[in-house]
Amino acid sequence: ETIVLASGLPPKHFQSVQGSEALMECVTKGTNGEVTFNYFPSGELVKRDSMVTGINQGLAQIAVSSVPDEVAYIPLQGLLTLPGLTGSAVEATVGWRKALDQNGAMAEELTRQNVMPLLLSPLAPYQIMANEKLDDPSKWDGLKIRATGSSLSVLVNSIGGVAVQMPATEIYVALQRGTVDATILSFTSLVGYSLQEVLSSYSTNASFGTSASMWGMDLKFFNNLPADQQRVIKECGRSIELSMAALIDSNEKKIAEDLAAQGQQVFELTPEQLDMFAEQMVSVETSFLKRLNDRGLPAEEALSEYKAALGK
Amino acid sequence: MERKAPRRNATFKLLDQILRPLENGAAIIGAAMMLAAMTITTFDALLRYTINKPLSFNYFLTEQYLLVGLVSLPLAWGFRTGGFIRITFLLHVIPQNVGNLLLRVGLLVSSIFCADLAWMSGKNWYEIFSNGLVEMDVIDWPVHLSWIWVPIGCGLLSLRLLTSVFGASEDLIVEHTAEEYPE
Amino acid sequence: MVLAVPIGFALGIAGFVSLNMLVPMSVLQAIMGKVMHETLANSVLLTIPMFILMAEFLSCGGVATDLLMACNRMLRRVRGGLAMACIVAGAIHAAATGSSTASAASLARASFPAMMKAGYAPSFAVGTISIAGTLAIMIPPSVSFVIYGIITETSIGKLFIAGIIPGLLTALGYIVTISITLKLKPKLGPDAIDEQRVATEQRGGTVWPMILLIFIVLGGLYSGVATPTEISAIGAAGALVLSIMSRRMDRNDFMGAVSGTLRITSMIMLIIVSSHVVGYFISITHITNTLLGWIAESGMTPTVVMLIVVLIYLILGMFMDQAAVLILTAPISTPLMVGLGFDPIWWGVIMIKTTEIGLVSPPLGLVVFVTSSVTRTNLYSSFKGIIPFLIAEFVTLGLLLAFPILTLWLT
Ligand code: NA
Ligand code: NA
């Protein structure tokens, strides 16, 4: 059996190496070469926002989704991006998997789209990254902050900043020239876009939302595979997602340490400061839930599933 | 137009008459979308810079709606009034009637290609429309209104190409000049 | 087939037929269903219609022509002064935009009529304009450098700085080419006297609106008022306001500018959509991986490997969309080069240089397509006009390959 795996990530991206490549190797090895892969990275076949259609139109049997970019198809998974929920990639990965295993609203959404959640990869919680120490909500007032998607934009605005959207290819120049003053990102993405060259001050322990990727598999295709192959694929996904999450967390830490060693400002928010931000972010969750509820989606049910899985 | 009116047959005339107003209408909407993109993007940037109040809906509106529409909608009108570039120099070395036949076949194949683009994107549009997909940006956006322009634009272009298969020989190779503006 | 079908369709049809041999019909139809929307819904593409619109507004007011004439007046004692002015204008334009197609289209609107009036051969004029347009991706800001930087995780800031000297060197190469070409084939350009006469006749034109607009666009970009994409819309709006204020534009001019822009934009985009169909074919064959992988394992010396890869890029550039070449191959070729001991920033500049050449090399030379259609010049003679500049491109590429210091000096 040859499976087409399509991803929007560049082939040298850590999620390609530690995710896609590791997955393919694990499955091929585990099935003694019975299952092989035809791999298309870089959005050659399926873009970051098209996992669901890519799978259902037969372009690929496994496709990688960037959850915030695909909320039109999987809106409930978008709850993962809300601020204040998790403190690390490992925590988010374990919680998301646990929530899906309960076969509740979040799992049902994927099943209805014919998607089997093969491998989950939430990023580390996002930090505020700027050229000054933005450790207090009042310091955000009137600052232009690059944010993507719905929940992050609402978050920036609710803290008093001005959310600005722009393509990833333009953040560097925009920060360099002061078109925007700051951005909310994880450290891994920061260095991926070389933004440490134009920024100098970063928080380390905030939880300003996050982003997440999902390796989804064609559910009908999966169900038609022999049981032993199904088992191998499932186990590979679950073990790789944990090791990748651990790697993300340690990588975040390492980058932050490297930046500090280079003389850049890397700071922790005090519990009082975290509380002040949390207070301002309450409205983000409420408004996100309301928007989903208004469309008749079981948003509260899904969020309580996720929160219960996180132990909150 | 200075050149002598070419002989055009009835099929061409009928199709042409039906298509023209549709093409012009689509092009006018495309023009309005382009000017809207220019105006809103300008105000978005200037308001953000001067008073910290960007038009935060602009990014999504321009990318997902205006850009798709401003390119797709004028395609057929653009072909009718401007022709599309092609490599013509080799046509001068083969007999004219063979050349004309080739041109007609080429237009027919192009028409089929565009019809396929229109049909398949139309199916996607219908799927999105009937599922009521919503994109969550700073506000909620209906996704189907982003897709609709592609099947309309490609569909009109396909019909225009088909029409020109029946057109006069003179029209096959002459580089058209703009006969009228869409507004 | 290629003869009879407009390029916008020919590429797409060729891609369709080739894909049909490789993948099931259902997969092919899924690609057909999404390729156009996927290509168009991309905010960075806004620069194409907006910079063309800016040029259209300026040219119907005659404003852009005035600037060229002003440059020409300064260069009036030089044979080919107007063509050189076009290169200078291209370099200025390049500092404001990162898209070669947009730059070429707007330069064509601004300078082609003046060059015709001065007595240049159409093919030479189109060649000059096209090549001036390609400067946009070497001189920062450049979309191509950003894409390269993100894919290969190299510093975008360093890439921008690295592009400055090669960009200026390239522009200088074009100016020298103009001078030599006109010396060898004086018929391609006007007599120096003619050119002087055109310059003198045009003395009445005002230059301030264009200077003001350049100031707005470059000032807005470098002071951080707007992103590179947004600045194109501000430029178009600014050109509209200036043309109305200088009372050079009436209702017909306005509608002519809008319809001209729409026509060119939809045609360029159709070509880009079609080339993406071809891109799917190339992806599915894995041909670029296979080729580069084979070279990596061949055991040749680093310099030979590097030169072969450069050659592959030049060949790919002939047939493929340049963004696609970058996205498909940079992830493979850059680690290969770094592994052989080459600098990734330098390699980025070399790749962008080959990309630049690809934009004007037949048969798929996107920038030449654009210039040729804006100026309504026959495609064959347009490509003929490019030949002297291609020679200059190879000389510059040779210099950049031989002397990495040219690229890495400022970084
Ligand atoms: Na540039
Ligand atoms: Na080319």
UniProtKB/TrEMBL annotation, chain B:
<comment type="similarity">
    <text>Belongs to the TRAP transporter small permease family.</text>
</comment>
<keyword id="KW-0812">Transmembrane</keyword>
<keyword id="KW-0997">Cell inner membrane</keyword>
<dbReference type="GO" id="GO:0022857">
    <property type="term" value="F:transmembrane transporter activity"/>
</dbReference>
<feature type="transmembrane region" description="Helical">
    <location>
        <begin position="101"/>
        <end position="121"/>
    </location>
</feature>
<keyword id="KW-1003">Cell membrane</keyword>
<comment type="function">
    <text>Part of the tripartite ATP-independent periplasmic (TRAP) transport system.</text>
</comment>
<dbReference type="GO" id="GO:0005886">
    <property type="term" value="C:plasma membrane"/>
</dbReference>
<keyword id="KW-0472">Membrane</keyword>
<feature type="transmembrane region" description="Helical">
    <location>
        <begin position="21"/>
        <end position="45"/>
    </location>
</feature>
<feature type="transmembrane region" description="Helical">
    <location>
        <begin position="141"/>
        <end position="162"/>
    </location>
</feature>
<protein>
    <recommendedName>
        <fullName>TRAP transporter small permease protein</fullName>
    </recommendedName>
</protein>
<keyword id="KW-1133">Transmembrane helix</keyword>
<feature type="domain" description="Tripartite ATP-independent periplasmic transporters DctQ component">
    <location>
        <begin position="38"/>
        <end position="167"/>
    </location>
</feature>
<dbReference type="InterPro" id="IPR055348">
    <property type="entry name" value="DctQ"/>
</dbReference>
<comment type="subunit">
    <text>The complex comprises the extracytoplasmic solute receptor protein and the two transmembrane proteins.</text>
</comment>
<keyword id="KW-0813">Transport</keyword>
<dbReference type="Pfam" id="PF04290">
    <property type="entry name" value="DctQ"/>
</dbReference>
<feature type="transmembrane region" description="Helical">
    <location>
        <begin position="65"/>
        <end position="89"/>
    </location>
</feature>
<dbReference type="InterPro" id="IPR007387">
    <property type="entry name" value="TRAP_DctQ"/>
</dbReference>
<dbReference type="GO" id="GO:0015740">
    <property type="term" value="P:C4-dicarboxylate transport"/>
</dbReference>
Automatic annotation (TrEMBL), chain C:
<feature type="domain" description="TRAP C4-dicarboxylate transport system permease DctM subunit">
    <location>
        <begin position="1"/>
        <end position="404"/>
    </location>
</feature>
<keyword id="KW-0813">Transport</keyword>
<dbReference type="InterPro" id="IPR010656">
    <property type="entry name" value="DctM"/>
</dbReference>
<feature type="transmembrane region" description="Helical">
    <location>
        <begin position="261"/>
        <end position="282"/>
    </location>
</feature>
<comment type="subunit">
    <text>The complex comprises the extracytoplasmic solute receptor protein and the two transmembrane proteins.</text>
</comment>
<protein>
    <recommendedName>
        <fullName>TRAP transporter large permease protein</fullName>
    </recommendedName>
</protein>
<keyword id="KW-0997">Cell inner membrane</keyword>
<feature type="transmembrane region" description="Helical">
    <location>
        <begin position="386"/>
        <end position="410"/>
    </location>
</feature>
<comment type="similarity">
    <text>Belongs to the TRAP transporter large permease family.</text>
</comment>
<feature type="transmembrane region" description="Helical">
    <location>
        <begin position="6"/>
        <end position="32"/>
    </location>
</feature>
<feature type="transmembrane region" description="Helical">
    <location>
        <begin position="231"/>
        <end position="249"/>
    </location>
</feature>
<keyword id="KW-1003">Cell membrane</keyword>
<feature type="transmembrane region" description="Helical">
    <location>
        <begin position="357"/>
        <end position="374"/>
    </location>
</feature>
<dbReference type="GO" id="GO:0005886">
    <property type="term" value="C:plasma membrane"/>
</dbReference>
<keyword id="KW-0812">Transmembrane</keyword>
<feature type="transmembrane region" description="Helical">
    <location>
        <begin position="294"/>
        <end position="316"/>
    </location>
</feature>
<feature type="transmembrane region" description="Helical">
    <location>
        <begin position="82"/>
        <end position="108"/>
    </location>
</feature>
<feature type="transmembrane region" description="Helical">
    <location>
        <begin position="159"/>
        <end position="184"/>
    </location>
</feature>
<feature type="transmembrane region" description="Helical">
    <location>
        <begin position="44"/>
        <end position="70"/>
    </location>
</feature>
<feature type="transmembrane region" description="Helical">
    <location>
        <begin position="323"/>
        <end position="342"/>
    </location>
</feature>
<feature type="transmembrane region" description="Helical">
    <location>
        <begin position="120"/>
        <end position="139"/>
    </location>
</feature>
<keyword id="KW-0472">Membrane</keyword>
